[in-house]
């Protein structure tokens, strides 16, 4: 130890330590005593060049070497100042990826947002695609469809929903079922929210067209095969009960049925409705998707109240429309009628009152159809005599009873617009209304004489004809159709719906013959079912069909499925022949319920 200290002191004395150390190779170093340590990796304090990028890229483009310094533990520290290849910046002039190209950005393929056409490999309107330049400009993104799937429109040749099939407009029957006993069983409505399908009406009754003198209320849920998942039947003790309308809530899937009853209806679990005295009262019932009754409400007084229609709207709102005499209370206080008046009531998802109004004068008025717009406005249709003021001006009947349609604000109940349908002393009546995917509004019913709307006049051929009117959201007329004959038969439109593409489907019953616009089609005798689909823009006939035999058949409900197929329901006697391979339906009693599904 003494010898090593003497060596250190002697070297230090002559000032040679630093000189000697700087002359050592980088792999050698002095220990603290000034002796050599050949196993050390670097010399403390010595700096050296460094580079961690790929071989051959240092000094190319923006890339350069850095330096690192040997630390006290004789290992090199971090490489400082080096620049290694980076993703090429298409918005800077340099060669950031150090590939040595003369123009550093020549690999930039596009400007962000640029597009190129491509093929997605998907069917239908989804086949054509677009590739979009990525934000860095180095490449185009994946091929994405230029169009997303749309509701299938049978009026076009395209495969709108991209399922590989482009069905034409045929209206052929692909399913058909019936139910019934010895008496009259009739579905007065059919509804769907796309997943839950329902019908409602009367069973074990005495029915002539829309007039019911006896029977029990029924509502059922149907599977996609149209078979019944469950059925709720409630008689009215000492009276009658029936549903005249049905709807399905979009979110909850609750089935809503509305109608009329006399006597007492027991829905179980303490839910009992009793009419006032022996008069007819209106009611609404909500049944969950499993078949349990959530709530039931009766609205009546000392005279007649009838709920003719029900609709499910945004936020769980429920609209009920009908006719009332005397005084009726929907939960917001007494609403006196001036005779036989129409009414509209809005309830929440639990049946609580939001707003209601009774409208009319001393002459008779009634609401038969109701629907919601997407903005929660309420569209109501029916008939009136005398004068009718819903808030947008007085409508004056020409006599004999005129039809009307009005759009009411969902907030303050007054109408935004209203239209009279009728212009002479004959009778006109609107039985149903529907709102389409773009806010258009369709109304159907029956008329004698003539009707004029916005300069368009429809004149009945003989007796009573059906009509179809389609309005823009602001109340302007889009097109109008009459469905009649020259043989003296009656044609009545009872229900209307829009498919997802905006085409309109109208149904009802007729005798004699009916002309949809392509020539008269005779009935098989008595009263037959008709259903027709018209194009969304100009009302071009897409298809039409009639079904029945020499006995009476009536359609009262129609609904459109998301894939633009049609559900149809009503009551029939005798036999209804459908398209193969669907078997004919044969009535077991006076009338049986029928439910069918039609192709787009």
Automatic annotation (TrEMBL):
InterPro entries referenced in this protein's UniProt entry, alphabetically: Motility_Chemotaxis_Reg, TAT_signal, WD40/YVTN_repeat-like_dom_sf
Keywords: Signal
PROSITE patterns: TAT
Coiled coil among keywords: no
UniProt-listed SUPFAM superfamilies: NHL repeat
Secretion signal span: 1-23
Regions annotated as coiled coil: none
Domain of life of the organism encoding this protein: Bacteria
Protein name (database record): Uncharacterized protein
